[in-house]
């Protein structure tokens, strides 16, 4: 059951662990900008505000990328004051798809090294 926000709340809807689908996760991680967001969250191992990411896209496109990651179950977002904080749902992803996130992040790192990114 998707966790829906209360009426008038600033909470954002997230899929429950058992609703997270492999296809949605792979789709979310197939975009280079979204993969970069996940890499930064994985490296930091803490929540980061949306404003802490320097992405090569407009603010509205950035919002779209975060929404895709949240709706697929890859990240969790919450408001802390006026900041929208983002955290990787590593525990959920590792429980559902053991090793997937680590493999994808390692492969992305090897590709970046190979291509000089």
Automatic annotation (TrEMBL):
GO molecular function, one term: DNA-binding transcription factor activity
Residues covered by the HTH arsR-type domain: 14-108
Keywords assigned: DNA-binding, Transcription, Transcription regulation
UniProt cross-references to PROSITE patterns, sorted A to Z: HTH_ARSR_2 (PS50987)
Keyword rRNA processing attached: no
Record Gene3D superfamilies: Winged helix-like DNA-binding domain superfamily/Winged helix DNA-binding domain (1.10.10.10)
UniProt key word Transcription regulation: yes
Signal sequence segment: none
SUPFAM superfamilies linked: Winged helix' DNA-binding domain
Superkingdom of the source species: Bacteria
Protein name, entry field: Transcriptional regulator
């Amino acid at each position: 059951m998707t966790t829906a926000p209360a009426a008038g709340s600033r909470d954002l809807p997230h899929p429950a662990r058992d609703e997270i689908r492999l296809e949605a996760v792979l789709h979310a991680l197939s975009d280079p900008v979204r993969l970069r967001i996940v890499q930064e969250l994985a490296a930091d191992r803490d929540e980061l505000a949306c404003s802490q990411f320097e992405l090569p896209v407009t603010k509205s496109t950035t919002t779209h990328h975060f929404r895709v990651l949240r709706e697929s179950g890859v990240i969790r977002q919450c408001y802390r004051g006026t900041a929208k904080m983002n955290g990787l749902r590593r525990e959920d992803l590792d429980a559902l798809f053991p090793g997937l996130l680590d493999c994808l992040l390692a492969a992305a790192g090897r590709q970046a090294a190979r291509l000089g990114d």
